[in-house]
Amino acid sequence: MSRRSRRIVPAGFVLTGAILFLASAGAPAAAALTGWVSAAADTLEAPVELPAPPVSVSAEPEVAPVAPLAPAAPVSGTAPMAAPTGYNAIADTLTVLVDYRAEAEITRDLQNATAEKALAERRVERFRMLARQAEARIEIKTSEIKSLDAEIDFAKTEKNESRRKELEGRKKFAGTEKELLERRRELRRREIDLAQAARAYHESVEKVCRVEMDLTAARRGRAAIPSTVDPGAAAEFRRLQTEAVKLEGKVLEAQVERAGKLKNVAQQEEQLGKVRRSVYESQLKVAQGAR
Predict the structure, then answer these.
(1) What are the Cα distances from residue 215, in Å, to 105, 223, 234, 243?
(2) Is the pTM of this model over 0.70?
(3) Over pLDDT 90: what percentage of the chain?
């Protein structure tokens, strides 16, 4: 169908109107009517197409597209809550418990620890020698005091009071000197303990550095693998990864041990400070008694 509608009128109504018109016109028109009717007989039942009334050709207004409706907000308590985003703790950079350090830095710390350990060993030997000297002086002073006791007894027998008082003064001063020597001996012992603690601490530092060097080598080898597409490279990467994890644990254990050794060093230093204070007080007494 076109945009214009069509109006259909039956042909019988058209023919009837024509006959009535010719009959009123007379005989000549009747003869003409006979031929016309015969010609129209073939189209009696055919529909006649009449022009349709004009239709407005003005443009129809376009209808604006309707925006899709937004989904309604879920009612509280009826819709499921969105699952929270998971926290990947392994991807957190804070889980790197053993810092990445350059091999040169680790080597320098290892060399320093080795040198300090050797120095601590020499101090142990030196303080042991001083402790033996202090012990020998104590024995000498003890013998001196015994000799003074014998002289005091002899002075009492002779009833020599001036001699007795003199010997008792000397004995008292010798006792002060002996107390100083005993505190010096304790000082040497504390110095030995501190030197041994320092040696143990530096040994623990050496251990940390050596294990850390192994960890650095494993990390370097792991980082040198450009891709894990190849099965052999993937297997090597897993091996180095497993080794690095184990070495990290060993480094952490060594660091805990090192911290304990350092704590022992601090305790020995505290004890040594107390003994030095007592030696200081004894030396003041000896200095005052000698005047």
Answers:
(1) 14, 12, 19, 8
(2) no
(3) 53
Q: Which residues pair with 48 in a beta bridge?
A: 9
Structure tokens at 108: 């320098």
Residue 129 phi, psi (nearest 5)? -65, -45
Rounded Cα distance between 164 and 155, Å, is: 5
Q: Give me the domains of the chain, ranges plus CATH numbers.
A: 7-49 (no CATH), 101-289 (1.20.1270)
Whether the CB-CB separation of 181 and 138 falls below 8 Å is answered with: yes
DSSP 8-state secondary structure symbol assigned to residue 10: -
Nearest to 258 by CA among 192, 191, 210: 210
> What does the buried/exposed string (b/e) look like for 175-211 if buried means 16 or more CB atoms within 10 Å of the residue's CB?
ebbbbbbbbbbbbbbbbbbbbbbbbbbbbbbbbbbbb
Query: pLDDT tens for residues 202-243?
Result: 999 999 999 999 999 999 998 888 888 888 889 998 999 899
* Listed residue (152, 149, 148) closest to 161, CA to CA: 152
Helices (H) and strands (E) in the chain, counts: 5, 2
Q: Rounded to whole angstroms, how far apart are CA atoms 106 and 142?
A: 53
Q: Is the pLDDT of residue 107 over 50?
A: yes
Cα–chain center distance at 287:
61
CB within 8 Å of 43: residues ≥ 6 apart: 11
In sequence order, which ranges of 85-160 are alpha helices (DSSP H)? 103-157
Q: Which of 67-81, 146-160, 222-236 is modeled with the greatest confidence? A: 146-160
